[in-house]
Amino acid sequence: MDDGWSRDRFRAAHVARLATVDGSGRPHVVPIVFVLIGDGLFTVVDLKPKTDVGGGARLRRLDNIRANPAVSVLVDHYADDWQRLWWARADGSARVIDTADAEAAEPMRALTRRYPQYQAEPPPGPMIAIEVQRWSGWAASDAAADA
User: Fold this and answer.
1) Domain 3-146 fold
2) What are 59-82's pLDDT values in tens digits?
């Protein structure tokens, strides 16, 4: 699948899986909500309880990105009819930014528009900014690719 197809799948998806790797090469995958702006993916730490390292700025995904910025983000569609299966992946370089930084303003507005839950409870952050360097994808059939 071409880059445009994969970007379109990301624009339509509301949840993705973020894969990071710690300094020793151990993978860590978590579901995220996100927004796509150009070739940038943005996600923010919200107020839901976190347990992977104690919450807030001490999340494993944030520590992993600080140690190794290489990440992958995956969106997919499953159906019992396997001819309708597809996935799209964005590989890139991530960094952690403070939601008070000026560069976080536009992504935060976009996240709030996309996820109404953030209007009632704005996420405190921090934010993860991913510069996508490679788009890829796969579809089981032409029908899945067109879905």
Assistant:
1) Pnp Oxidase; Chain A (2.30.110)
2) 899 999 999 999 999 999 999 999
